[in-house]
Fold Ig-like domain (Group 2).
Amino acid sequence: MVFWEKIRMGLAVVAPLCLLIGLFSGEAEAATIYRSGDAAASEGAFTPAVNAAEYVAPGNHYDGDGIKYYLLTHDEEKRDLESISYDGKVFSLEGVAVQPSSDIDFINLEFPNRDGTRIKLLNYAVPSRDFTIFFDDGLYNDTNSTNYTALSKENASYVGLNRDALGESTATLSKEPRSGTGNPNIDDKMERWIFMNPEIYLENLKFDGKGKDMYPVGGGSGSSRVPKNRGEYFFVVTGGGKVAGCNNFVMRDVVLENIGNDNSTEYPSFWGVDTRNKNVALNVLYNPGQVNIENITIRNIKTTEGYGIIQNEYVDQVFYKDVAINAENANPNSRSIKIEQSGTQTAGSATFVPPEEQAVSFFGDIHLPDDRMHNHIYVQDYRYKGVTVPEDFRYAFWNVQNGSYFSNAFEIHQTRPEMESNRALHDLRDNFWIISADSSIPLEEQLTSIQLTMNYAKMDDGTLRAPQGNIKLETSTAIPGFKLPENFSDQGVQIVALNDDDGTYDSKALVPVAHDAIIDLVGNTPVILYNFDFHENTGLTLQEAALGIHGLTPDQLKDPLQQSDLGGGDYPKYETYAINLPKTPGVLNARAEDTFINCRFTVLAETLSIGNIPNGNIMDVDQFIQLSPVFNTGYTLDGGVLPLTPDTIDDLTTQWVSSHPEVASIDEMGRLQAHSEGKVTIYLKARDGKNNGEIEKPFDSVELTVVPKRQETTQTIITDHPGTNHNTGLGSSWRLQGAALVGLLLGASVLLILYLKKRC
């Protein structure tokens, strides 16, 4: 009997230790995702920049019923041709004009008809329509330098007959520069090619500007009496004073090259007038009709400062598809593509495209230079109905105020631009704003730029144009502190944290908050945060993140474990310990828990109690008892208990204190040993390894009475206090690798049994 009694006594020590090791052999989850859910897609305010749309194909073509076909060639052997082939089709020719020289007077060039008559098809003053001219290989240079309307007949088409190995036209059109005016700002300069009637079609042609400047808008003022506004732009597509405009204009497979001689801002002033040469390659101007420009190349262009190589002014239904621009020789401060001007313009009695109807669309491959001034589409006014771009043009870079003659309202970029002051970055892919913690521009400044843009980007009647307050916060490390501007958005704000610069608003990946971050959301704007991880670096509970943590200085926070005298009733109650102390700023000021969706928080012990209390709170002298801490998880802000189990608590480390160690002592593992008769209070405190003075209630105590021995047994194990059925945790010495410790204790128990058996 003595042997088995000693085995029972040994197992009484080993068994509870093995039980506790089993409970805490693994790392705790430590945190919880609070309120899972998805960020709402951006809807509401209309955005005048759209990522991808349906292309509207042209309704005009070079062939069809009632069209007469002509050939212009340098080859005498083709004079009697009756038909030609193009694009897999055969066309019967009405007539062939043969010009042995490249220099041709377009105005007086006559094309023969089958009936023996002749017609001047390149003379705008001669009525003619419903024809197509095929240009054979070679150069066709107009010697009449003032004939800027040569290709502007209604329902007329101009097509290059052949292509080279690169797929470009073998037919080139050019013209002579102006001469004989006596005005140095006009002589040796070019007039424009103008298109101002419906149903004009160009295909498979090259246009050579001969490296000559376009003469400036003011070049014809004063005593020269040379008409102005016939230079500036190499190509002009315009309504020409007609309400219908140049409707159904098509330019396909065309090269514009060698435009301009000088890319400087202007010539020396002459008669005090505007002398900017501009050298704009293409301007669609004052035109309410549909325009389709497909597969065009612009190269060796010397556009001057402030102007676009391609410009669009007061237009609607303009469709670009497959555009390549080489701006190597353009002024560094020019632009690739500009959509500019605002308001309503009139020409004669016609009104051209009010701002709410203005729109330009881009499709296919748009190849722009890489430099900062040319790598985007420039939009001057918020009030455009819309600017549609291909999906690879992902970013809109908004100005904080509407554009002017010298600035834009927003830019549309293929590649992500670096953050800049007074600009807000907008992702067209998901219609969310972007702020970056990796930028040199502070987050608060980036947020202010978004706020200002949202306020300024309006129609004349106040209709919002910029997207609503939905924001992606990107970082490669951790989320720093920031303050949301007041009156940010009447519609509310979503801020979705992303751990890279390519994510979309529906990401669920958690992003850590920096350990020293203070995020100030005070204000009247409703805010929801997504994917913020308050656990990894900051170790904050939901309560601490939203409401702040209590003061941490020794004067404010009286930790009983730091006091020398713990006797009697000196141990403070929780309500006098921390709850009434002043709080430091919370990570999130003045926010309720509904601020958080898919955010992670540390889980601490909300309540802590002592388990395994002896019956009647009485111990015998020399009696040993293993006490245990019993944890409950933290409360939500409204007082409800989080639906979590204790194994999700971040830090189960506890500290034990005896008020009178001479009566009963307790070690850091909760092992209580009675020594002499008397009363003793045992205190238990949760020692969170991350925060001191947390909102949680971290104390419990029990008063025990030690009496003389009442039985032979000096070591007793008592079960949990009635009603206590929680998991338990121990002190810091139990932070060991569980498996190793289990093995050690099991081995010790075997040795103990063998030893006791031997003694018997």
Residues 47-70+120-374 form one domain.
